[in-house]
Structures are given as structure tokens and as C-alpha cells.
């Protein structure tokens, strides 16, 4: 081989090797989209996962977090994940009903969790894992459950008794269970994207809504709601999910590290949720813009009695056996339905 030809071949080989190394050095990008503010429990947990993932993989993974519906609204984000436009989401559990996995709407049932301990028993046990497994047929892997908290009712009129809901237009997530809950109370449920709720409350398109205090506060809903009732009637949580094809295509070692990072971020998320909600409730009370009411024990019992029939009404939709499995977890901890 002539020297010139050899040098040319060597140069080409070095260029190819350099290009391959450069390509190999490119980090794996995970776009993590969500619809709430960065300073909510979910927003903070997403940032914690980003930090842990990048740190533990030594830069081999880059997590880009997009909060506050920057990329997609409620109805759009699940399709974007399935198409691979984003790799990770943390949608509220109600979002899986419209996707076709209606069993997740069991989490929307009013008074399904008598305590945080029962909730944890479900999400960290076989019942919770079984529900996540159902997502795989939709091209989705469920990684973890993240808490937000228990919901309060708000409106521009006092909501002290169940009779007060009659004719009130209440924003809900797209959930047949939440629709049934509001109709049972005599309210008029209105499905609406989370990012649109503040303006809808401000302009009177809807009269009220239900949210954990942290969501209500960070979205400034207390500025456009005159009254709120600390009812703690329902739970709002999230499932952290990834695109199945993307997740299974990751190098085995990277996937294992990310699972560890997610476990740590989940512990963080579920630890801060209660504190964040308590702080948000205190801040809203201090603002004086919303008048908060805490029901008496008798009023709480009346609310529960009025809404428990929703459980039976939804048996055909979410599954009687599944609802019973939630009751069994509660019974293990000494609670009776």
C-alpha cells in the first residue's frame, strides 16, 4: 500500500472512530413533562429525580423537566408519551381512565382511603403494582406512585353541607368517578384542563373546583375563590410513567441506576407532600383572600354518607373486586368501610 493511500485510510478510520466516540458521548435525553408548577410536591420531586438521575449516571443521562404545561396540556401529554415525543410523565391517576385503563379511577372514589397508611399499603403493595402492570398494553411502563394529597372543595359560595353543591358548576378532571361524585352532590361537573382552571374560575365559566391545597395555592386559585371547605374527601396522586419502547431500549446498567434514582425521588415526593399541603393551606389562610371552613364531625359524616353510594355505582366501571381489594387493605389496618 502506498504511503498516501495508507494515510488517507488511517485518517478516515480515525474520523470514523472519533465520530463514533462523539456519538457515544452524547447523553441519553429524558424529556419529563408535567402540568403543575415547579414548587408543588410533584414539581419538586421531578427536579429531585433529574438531579439524582444525572448525578448517578455521571452525566450519561440528561433529564429535561418541562412544568406548567409548557409542552402539553392534560389531554395531549399521554398521546405525546405514547408517540415518543416525551419520555416521562407524572399524570394524575384519573388520566388513565380516558386512556382505556379505567381501573385507575378507583383512586378517585370519595373516602376510599381512611388514612395515609391505607393509601401507602395500596400503592406500595401488590394491588398498586398490579394496576401499574395494566399500563404495559398501552406502551407505557409505570415506575412509581407519587403523592400530592387529599382534596378540598372551593367555590364562590360556602360549601358547608352537601345541599350547598346544588347547581354549582365544578371543574373536574376527566373521570367518570369524579363526574358521578359531583352529580351525587347535585353539582354540575365540567371537565377542563388544569392549565385553564384559574381563568375559568376568574371569569365565572366554572364556580368552583377540588384540589389539594398545594395545587390551589401554586396556581393562585385562592385569589379567585371566596370560600373553601377542608373536606379531605378525595385523594390526588400521580403515577410516574415512561414510554415502554424507550425504557426497554435503555442499557441495562442505565435502567437499573434510573430505577434507583426514581425510588429515592419517590421517597422524597411522598415525604414532602403533606408538609407542602399544610404550608400551602396556612399561606392561603394568612392571605385572607379565601374563607376556609373545617366541617364538624357530624358534617363530615354527612358528606361521607352522601358520597359513599358512588362506590357501588362505579363497581361495573372500575371493578367490584378491585374496590374490595382497597377495602381489604383498610381492614388490615383496622378500618371498616
Automatic annotation (TrEMBL):
Gene3D superfamilies: Bacterial extracellular solute-binding protein, family 7 (3.40.190.170)
Pfam families for the chain: DctP
GO BP annotations listed: C4-dicarboxylate transport; transmembrane transport
GO cellular component labels: outer membrane-bounded periplasmic space
Signal peptide start-end: 1-22
InterPro entries, per the entry: DctP_fam (IPR018389), TRAP_DctP (IPR004682), TRAP_DctP_sf (IPR038404)
Entry keywords, A to Z: Signal, Transport
Family the UniProt entry places it in: Belongs to the bacterial solute-binding protein 7 family.
Protein name per the record: C4-dicarboxylate ABC transporter
Upper taxonomic lineage: Bacteria, Pseudomonadati, Pseudomonadota, Alphaproteobacteria, Rhodospirillales
